[in-house]
Specification:
By secondary structure, this protein is an alpha+beta fold. It is built from 17 helices and 20 strands. The protein has a four-stranded mixed beta sheet with strand order 8-5-11-12, with no helix packed on it. The longest helix has about 30 residues, at about 125-155. The radius of gyration is 33 Å and the shape is elongated.
Length: about 700
């Protein structure tokens, strides 16, 4: 009976004191944020590895997209307040949003243009075109509904439900972080899977497809609750009125620029001929806050690089966290996890402690500290990058060649690089590191092993790596110079593996699910790509007899030549030769920079919104929200400008440049904040209300006097 009573009560317009409609809105927001952050988490890697763009172009397009997502909210607010209303705007732009996500998923299907089935798209331009169309639609959708959904949720409450409305916004913010956190964990896992019809590739269609499905669910859930919503009709946008007021003041001031017209206290007072004093006073308060916003975009220029530069940095690091490997794009989850933990800690512990120490930690001082911490986070990122750069292999330049030696025999060997360049001794079943030579000066190799000597004349193309395979046999010295065809470290934490058959019999080689085919004695395979952090089973079949061994952990971003020796029963004997060392700087070293940046976000972003709302009139909150979102958009545009203009070849230097720029801006903001005078908008508005009442009293008095005079 109690269960039935609960069920019936929830069918009413209110459930547990809340309008039932807000539950649909919260679920809608969770699904939409899952869709957006899930897609965005893998976006920069999609650009780099699927569309084959370099780091700079991938970063540029990523930040252009994010900037567009924060410019379009102004358009969404105008459409909602001046034309369609919030409900119709959310539905219309959600349809655009869903189509955009679906187009992104289709654009990432490799088999769409892979007609020759080589695993690479034959018409990259088509994939790029579809991707750009999809991203533009997503930017219009997510940006357009951003200012509408939270405000639409607030509209569902009655005037006497202030407590419930406040709690709703807390739940709403929690749903945003929950959607962000879960999607940033899941979509990188989906991306790391292999899928495809003709060839198996990273599964970007699934990584984009699941967010597209969640966006469709978000739209359906929102429409299902349609009959329960309180839908406020559009009443005009205050931003338009503010813009018109500012425009008229500038135009009127320009018209009366002659010295014969007396100056006015504030340039906005030139709008008093057309607009009432209250709107002018409110606009002054808003412009005062917007002026303080001018330095803020630099913070967002650093903050939003979590999804671009920092994710690309993670691709060159070791993601082995023991029981499970971490994908580079999953490191972004550190931010929402820390946000959920730190917001209550800072509010309940840190701020009260500062207050007890009698430090006047004003909102503007908090914002200044946030900017300083973000600058510090990029110094930490630069230090990590320096350590990464130390571990990266050096590849030959255009006029150089690199050679390493693998001795497959039981005798030691000596190789003389002629003419008299270098003399190298290699012990039995061992290998050297790569040695660099000027290609034009290297003419031949003199190889000595046991009692045998041979000379091999070589002519190398330059700019490449080679492996010299040697073995002293009963018939003389066997030697072969292999072309490695590797000019860069494997990306995305993958590993490159190849095999050499060091046995007299032909062998069929399989590693994991990849077949390398049949190798004749002393022949080598080409490199094949394997996911990093795995241990795979190596199986060899010789003369119909199989033997196997589990490979050692090959780390992330490595390249190995695995030499297949004889079998001992069913156990295969193999020797590993490291061609490219695995990533050795662990991804955990990124946690300090994420922690510092999250601290910066807590004291900057949360405080910034709180300060803005406290300094703005009640009917001007939307103007400041648009201004705040605009700072995020401009911040992402700054990334494009600075990264494009700096031309720095070292990534650590770019991190230091951004840190220095933000530190300089932080000092400028601190000076601006020092001269700022806090105001109480409610007090100012109350004065206008009093003046309005006085004017009304005077009007009533004169009307009564006039009426009395007319009756006499």
């Amino acid at each position: 009976l109690s269960g039935l009573t609960l069920s019936v009560s929830c069918l009413q317009p209110n459930c547990f004191g809340y309008p039932l409609s807000i539950f649909f809105i919260v679920i809608n927001e969770f699904c939409e944020r899952f869709s957006y952050y899930g897609m965005r988490a893998v976006l920069v890697l999609y650009f780099k590895y699927f569309l084959q763009w370099d780091d700079n172009l991938s970063t540029a397009i990523y930040h252009t997209f994010v900037a567009l997502c924060y410019l379009t909210p102004i358009l969404g607010a105008l459409i909602a307040d001046s034309w369609l209303g919030k409900f119709k705007t959310i539905v219309s732009l959600s349809i655009v949003y869903t189509i955009g996500q679906a187009v992104m998923s289709v654009s990432s299907i490799n088999d769409l243009t892979d007609h020759n089935r080589d695993g690479l798209p034959d018409n990259v331009s088509l994939h790029i075109g579809l991707s750009m169309v999809g991203l533009i639609l997503i930017a219009l959708g997510t940006g357009g509904i951003k200012p509408c959904v939270s405000a639409f949720g607030g509209d569902q409450f009655e005037d006497d439900q202030e407590k419930q409305r406040s709690r709703f916004f807390s739940i709403f913010y929690l749903s945003i972080n929950a959607g962000s956190l879960i999607s940033t964990i899941i979509t990188p896992i989906l991306r790391a899977q292999e899928c495809g019809i003709h060839s198996k590739q990273r599964c970007y269609p699934l990584a984009f497809g699941v967010p597209a499905a969640l966006m469709a669910v978000s739209l359906v859930v929102f429409i299902v609750g349609s009959r329960m919503y309180k839908k406020v009709q559009p009443q005009g946008n205050i931003m338009i009125q503010v813009a018109k007021c500012i425009g008229f003041a500038i135009k009127n001031r320009f018209r009366h620029r002659s010295k014969e017209f007396p100056k006015r206290e504030h340039w906005l007072d030139w709008a008093s001929e057309k607009y009432d004093k209250r709107l002018i006073a409110q606009t002054k308060m808003v412009l005062k806050v917007l002026f303080l916003y001018i330095p803020l975009p630099m913070f967002w220029a650093l903050f939003d690089q979590q999804g671009s530069r920092w994710t690309l940095q993670a691709t060159t690091m070791d993601g082995d966290f023991g029981a499970f490997p971490i994908q580079p794009d999953q490191m972004q989850t550190v931010n929402p996890i820390l946000i959920i933990v730190m917001v209550p800690v800072v509010d309940a512990v840190i701020y009260p402690l500062i207050k007890k120490c009698k430090i006047n930690f004003t909102p503007l001082r908090r914002i200044t500290v946030g900017m300083f911490l973000a600058s510090l986070a990029f110094v930490a990122a630069a230090l990590v990058q320096v350590q990464i750069d130390k571990t990266l292999p050096v590849f030959p330049a255009a006029g150089q060649s690199q050679i390493k030696i693998i001795n497959l025999g039981t005798d030691g060997a000596t190789v003389q690089f002629e003419p008299q360049l270098q003399n190298v001794t290699v012990t039995s079943m061992a290998s050297t590191n790569y040695m660099t030579f000027e290609t034009s000066g290297l003419q031949s190799l003199k190889i000595t092993s046991g009692n045998n000597t041979t000379t091999e004349v070589i002519q190398l193309p330059g700019g490449n790596r080679h492996t010299l395979e040697i073995k002293n046999t009963a018939t003389g010295i066997f030697s072969e110079l292999l072309f490695d065809n590797v000019t860069s470290k494997p990306e995305e934490g993958n590993n490159l593996i190849r095999f050499i058959n060091n046995s007299p019999d032909a062998a069929n080689v399989t590693m994991g699910g990849t077949s390398f085919g049949t190798l004749t004695s002393l022949s080598a395979t080409d490199y094949s790509l394997f996911s990093g952090g795995r241990k795979d089973n190596i199986t060899v079949i010789r003369n119909s007899v199989a033997c196997s061994v589990t490979s050692k952990s090959l780390g992330f971003g490595s390249a190995y030549t695995i030499v297949i020796n004889e079998c001992s029963g069913k156990i295969l004997d193999v020797t590993y030769s490291e061609d490219i060392p695995p990533n050795t700087v662990h991804m955990a070293w990124q946690i300090p920079q994420y922690f510092i940046l999250t601290c910066a976000e807590v004291v900057f972003s949360v405080t910034g919104l709180e300060f803005s709302y406290s300094q703005a009139p009640s009917n001007m909150k939307a103007v400041l929200q648009a201004g705040w979102l605009l700072t995020v958009a401009v911040g992402n545009i700054i990334v494009l400008i600075v990264a494009g203009a700096s031309k720095l070849s070292e990534q650590w230097a770019e991190y230091v440049l951004f840190a220095a720029l933000l530190l300089a801006v932080c000092i400028i903001f601190a000076i601006m904040a020092y001269f700022y005078t806090y105001v109480d908008p409610n007090e100012i508005e109350a004065q206008f209300e009093e003046e309005k009442k006085e004017v009304k009293k005077d009007q009533d008095f004169y009307e009564k006097e006039a009426e009395a005079d007319s009756q006499m």
